[in-house]
Amino acid sequence: MDMTAVRDLAPPHTIDGRHDDDLVAAARRDLRAFGLLYERHMPRVYDYLRARGATPEDAADLTAMAFERAMTHLADYRANHSGVLPWLLRIARNAWIDQHRRRRFGFLPIASALDASDPDPGPDALAIANERDRWVRSMVAGLPEPVRDAIALRYAAGLTGAEIAPIIGKSEAATRKLLARGIQTIRGRMTDDDPA
Questions:
Q1: What is the spatial distance between Cα 107 and Cα 141, in angstroms, rounded to a whole number?
Q2: Among 4, 33, 180, 193, which is disulfide-ready with 27 (CB 3.0 to 4.6 Å)?
Q3: DSSP state of 120
Q4: Best CATH choice for the domain 1-106 from the list 3.40.50.10320, 1.10.1740.10, 3.40.50.10490, 3.40.50.2000
Q5: C-alpha to C-alpha distances, 1 to 4, 6, 14, 33, nearest whole angstrom
Q6: Measured between alpha carbons, how far is 130 from 109 in angstroms, rounded to an integer?
Q7: Tens digit of pLDDT for each residue in 115-167?
Q8: End-to-end CA separation in angstroms for the chain
């Protein structure tokens, strides 16, 4: 059976029938096993970095940097603590913060990071998408940094409140409240001229 077929049959928390923690243990002995972790988690790390504000090029660079850091710090990973994806996202978050401090690039809209629509849109579609992006940017940019970060982790990386909590250094309950307040604030700012 080929690798694609094995991946298709594997439960969502495994690759090649192996749990992430097992892959980390294997990668500590043979770095080729790290490739499976990269393959599984790279898209979500990249999406998170895009939602944080990185351009596509910066997100690709930061994703590579995060996985490089993870590979060199495999010994620091603790199995069954919070999981591989939150660990990788914490590394990516730190890489983004480091890069942001050095270069001070701005925040791009979450809507752009999550948009997987037509790769060749017409002028009308581009105008609508740009207006929606401006609207989302204004709603999210007005939130405090911890709320923006939590929203990016939730909606771009697809993490749960329990997975976000250790990344941002808050309890699960505090994280859920942070997310709820952020969404409530955005909803409160909505007007009839919402471009969505």
A1: 7
A2: 33
A3: S
A4: 1.10.1740.10
A5: 8, 7, 17, 18
A6: 10
A7: 444 556 677 777 777 777 667 667 777 788 888 888 888 877 788 888 888 88
A8: 45
Calpha distance 9→89 (Å, rounded): 26
Taking the model in full, what pTM does it have?
Answer: 0.57
Higher pLDDT, 13 or 70: 70
CATH code linked to domain 113-196? 1.10.10.10
Angle between helices 145-155 and 123-141 (to 10 degrees): 130
Closest CA to 90 of 153, 136, 30, 33: 153
**pLDDT band per the 50, 70, 90 thresholds, residue 111:** very low
- 52 burial (CB, 10 Å; 0-12 / 13-18 / 19+) is buried
With vertex at residue 188, the alpha carbon angle to CA 187 and CA 194, rounded to the nearest 5 degrees, is: 60
Sorted by where each begins, the domain ranges of the chain are: 1-106, 113-196
Amino acid of residue 12: P
Helices and strands counted in the chain (H then E) = 10, 2
Tokens 């471009």 locate to 195
Longest dimension (CA), the chain: 58
